[in-house]
Amino acid sequence: MDPRLTAEQDEIRRTLRELLHKRCGPEELRAALDTPAGHDRALWTTLAEQLGLPGLAVPEAYGGVGCARTDLALAAEETGRALAPTPLLATSVLAAPLILALGTDAQRARLLPRLTDGTLTAALAVPAPVLATALALTGPGGGDWSGGGRAGGVQARRAGDGWRLYGEAAQVLDGHSAGLLLVAAHTGGFVRSRTLLFLVAGDAAGAVRTRQTALDPTRPQARVQLRHVEAELLGDEETQVDGPLARTGEFAAAFLACEAVGAADRALERTVEYLKQREQFGRAIGSFQAVQHRLADVYVQVQAARSAAYYAAWATGRGEDVGGLALAQALQALRLAAAEGIQLHGGIGFTWEHQAHLYFKRAAGDELLFGPVHRLRAHAAEESGLFAGAGVTV
């Protein structure tokens, strides 16, 4: 692996940082979170039109930029720094790769160009709280995790030449505002029990979407209730979704790791800036050795997480399953950086007006959705056979 970034990657990150610095300050972030969508639609349009960010990793044949997924993962470091309120994760990291991998030629041609130009957003709807399981981040990913209608999850049944869905999914990222829902549903009954993915229009008759109160307000979530909603099967009935979901999960882990590193780095920067200004006993509190030791520990954790995240971004296109470990390292670093930031900011760090607590909530929220950290590591150890033959159960 060559740790140096290419000129194109440097340019993407520089341009993105400049844009987010202008358009995603603390006041703009708060205003976006208070909107019904929970994100800044104008910012999303700008990112699509000026940078082509939603389609960065989509082939040119479908209107994308055609870059490697590595470039999108590295760009995530900048969106993480700003806690950018956009549907990038739900649309470009979770939904678009699945449509590209599983969709028919007609479905790709119809949907991907609209996803890449920012005119359509998408959300992956799976029963709560099994998103990490569906993406094979904390387990093998197989099994009947999609549930079945009233028993939990979503049930799919044939209706003439099409399909109807019944059930619900909660904690769906951007599910209340997405124009397209990618719904994981259980079908086949007891004989041919399996999970398939279906396309549902956001405004479909019988679909009720309600925004939920989330621990992390920068990751808007929704409860999606489907009452005999008309749906279109993604791909065909012979489609095997476990493999594509696992590969999407690997990429999502690398993306999230880079986002967490960016957030941790910014949280540390804000803390250092504050400690240079606040005085106690006639000197800046950042000059005290005990405080410097705490900051040094955070710095080491962030740099270690950055190395792991960069490697995961590089390896995601080479079939190496290291995203989960990188995500665990990055979430741990973000939690530490945010917690120390709150402590060292004193009482103001706990207030709603200050951004320090938003970084802590991002760490905790991502761990709830995609972790927890110990399960990410346990699954990685099991997959690598680390304890094989040692009589240890992980």
UniProtKB/TrEMBL annotation:
<dbReference type="InterPro" id="IPR009075">
    <property type="entry name" value="AcylCo_DH/oxidase_C"/>
</dbReference>
<dbReference type="InterPro" id="IPR037069">
    <property type="entry name" value="AcylCoA_DH/ox_N_sf"/>
</dbReference>
<keyword id="KW-0285">Flavoprotein</keyword>
<dbReference type="GO" id="GO:0050660">
    <property type="term" value="F:flavin adenine dinucleotide binding"/>
</dbReference>
<dbReference type="Pfam" id="PF02771">
    <property type="entry name" value="Acyl-CoA_dh_N"/>
</dbReference>
<feature type="domain" description="Acyl-CoA dehydrogenase/oxidase N-terminal">
    <location>
        <begin position="6"/>
        <end position="118"/>
    </location>
</feature>
<feature type="domain" description="Acyl-CoA dehydrogenase/oxidase C-terminal">
    <location>
        <begin position="255"/>
        <end position="381"/>
    </location>
</feature>
<dbReference type="InterPro" id="IPR009100">
    <property type="entry name" value="AcylCoA_DH/oxidase_NM_dom_sf"/>
</dbReference>
<dbReference type="InterPro" id="IPR036250">
    <property type="entry name" value="AcylCo_DH-like_C"/>
</dbReference>
<dbReference type="InterPro" id="IPR046373">
    <property type="entry name" value="Acyl-CoA_Oxase/DH_mid-dom_sf"/>
</dbReference>
<dbReference type="GO" id="GO:0003995">
    <property type="term" value="F:acyl-CoA dehydrogenase activity"/>
</dbReference>
<dbReference type="InterPro" id="IPR013786">
    <property type="entry name" value="AcylCoA_DH/ox_N"/>
</dbReference>
<keyword id="KW-0560">Oxidoreductase</keyword>
<comment type="similarity">
    <text>Belongs to the acyl-CoA dehydrogenase family.</text>
</comment>
<keyword id="KW-0274">FAD</keyword>
<protein>
    <submittedName>
        <fullName>Acyl-CoA dehydrogenase</fullName>
    </submittedName>
</protein>
<dbReference type="Pfam" id="PF00441">
    <property type="entry name" value="Acyl-CoA_dh_1"/>
</dbReference>
